[in-house]
Write a structure and sequence with these properties.
The protein is of the alpha/beta class. 36% of the residues lie in helices and 18% in strands.
Length: 273
């Protein structure tokens, strides 16, 4: 991975948009600091399209789509996207599965949950689970004492045994029934909302993330960036981003935003970011 300061100026000037993970990418130790939040306002005001791509629940996505300076938000690792229709003054929702299918899958996940809680002492259902529509989030270090890697792997094994898809984030193991993911829903969002085939414009977007559940995005976008804390997961990952920041979490995200804005402001492309 190259330092973010080495990001090509011509690519930065040509960017159409920024996709980014939230936990430990946009946040730092669970909080949104001023620098990253100001950064998305600045990016939006510079004309870039802004879309968080997160494992966080539908309930959070409702708030984000309404209140943040974003074009929309992909949530629950690709189970849904929400966007706010400013002209109609209404939040709109798009799900990978219809209501009845999501309900049936939630029943199946209930059995998985009980097995995980019995088998892995210290694991807990994530605090945001009541606001989820499609997946099961198991907390391994957000509101519980951090579990060792072998216990996290045990959680993954139980999801796998039941035929569920699972992804490890920096705080949760998320599991669901279905083959959707962050990348597929980002592609659907771009096509349905922007009439844009994302695969054909991979070099016009940057994705910023921090953990293994971001790998599909890292693999797809040639100019993806990781915040510094990605390094603690690097040995567990096959697909790493092309660039890495100096700082962790939200400050690392702000570093990426500053680089983009500086290069867009200068036809010559500044190199000091």
């Amino acid at each position: 991975m190259k330092p973010i300061r080495d990001f090509p100026p011509a690519i930065a000037r040509a960017l159409m948009g920024v996709f980014f993970d939230i936990d430990d990418t946009f946040t730092t130790r669970g909080k949104i600091h001023p620098a990253p939040f100001q950064a998305i306002w600045a990016l939006k005001e510079a004309g870039l399209r802004i879309v968080p791509i997160t494992g966080r629940p539908a309930g959070w996505c409702d708030h984000i789509a309404r209140m943040w300076p974003v074009d929309g938000v992909v949530g629950e690792n690709g189970a849904l996207y929400f966007w706010y229709d400013a002209q109609g003054r209404k939040l709109k929702r798009r799900f990978a599965d219809p209501d009845a299918v999501r309900e049936e899958k939630r029943r199946r996940l209930a059995a998985v949950k009980e097995e995980i809680l019995r088998a892995v002492p210290g694991a807990a259902v994530a605090g945001d689970q009541p606001y989820r529509e499609a997946d099961l989030a198991i907390d391994y270090c957000e509101d519980v004492a951090p579990l060792p890697r072998d216990k996290v792997e045990q959680i993954c094994d139980i999801f796998r045994k039941h035929g569920a898809t699972y992804k490890v984030s920096s705080i949760h193991v998320n599991g669901w029934f279905g083959d959707y993911n962050k990348l597929d829903m980002a592609k659907r969002f771009a096509l349905e909302q922007w009439d844009l085939t994302l695969g054909a414009h991979r070099d016009r977007f940057i994705f910023c993330g921090d953990s293994p559940n971001d790998e599909p995005m890292f693999e797809t976008f040639p100019y993806a960036a990781g915040v510094r804390n990605l390094l603690k997961f690097a040995d567990q990952m096959t697909h790493l981003p092309a660039y890495i920041t100096r700082q962790e979490g939200g400050e690392g995200f702000a570093e990426v935003a500053e680089m983009i804005l500086q290069r867009k402001e200068s036809p010559a492309g500044r190199t000091g970011a």
